[in-house]
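Q: I have 102 residues here and want to know how they pack in 3D. Can you give me a structure?
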Amino acid sequence: MSKYARRKDANHAVVIGAFRACGALAIDTSRLGEDFPDAVIGFKRVWKLVEIKDGDKPPSARRLSEGQEKFHVACGLAGLPVLVVERVEQVPALLAHWTEVA
C-alpha cells in the first residue's frame, strides 16, 4: 500500500457535491492515502465507503490500483463492499437504493 495520498480524479469534487446536494453526509477521505477509498458517505443511518473514478477516462485509466483492489477485496470479505462511482449521474440512483439500518 502506498503511504502517500493519491491524486484526485477530475470529477471528485462534483461527485462529493452531488452526494451532499442529495442530503448525504459526504466526508472526503482522499487525502488519507494508504489505498483507503476517496469518501465515506452517510445516508439513512448507514455509512458506506466510496471510490471515485473519472468516467470520462478510458477504462484502463479507471482501474483500481493493486493496493485499492486488495483493500476492496478485504472489505468485501468482511461484508463491507466499497462502492465505485464514475459519474455524478450515478449518485441519485445509489442513494435511492441505500439500505437503512433498522
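Q: Anything worth noting?
A: The first strand starts at residue 25 and ends at 28. The radius of gyration is 13 Å.
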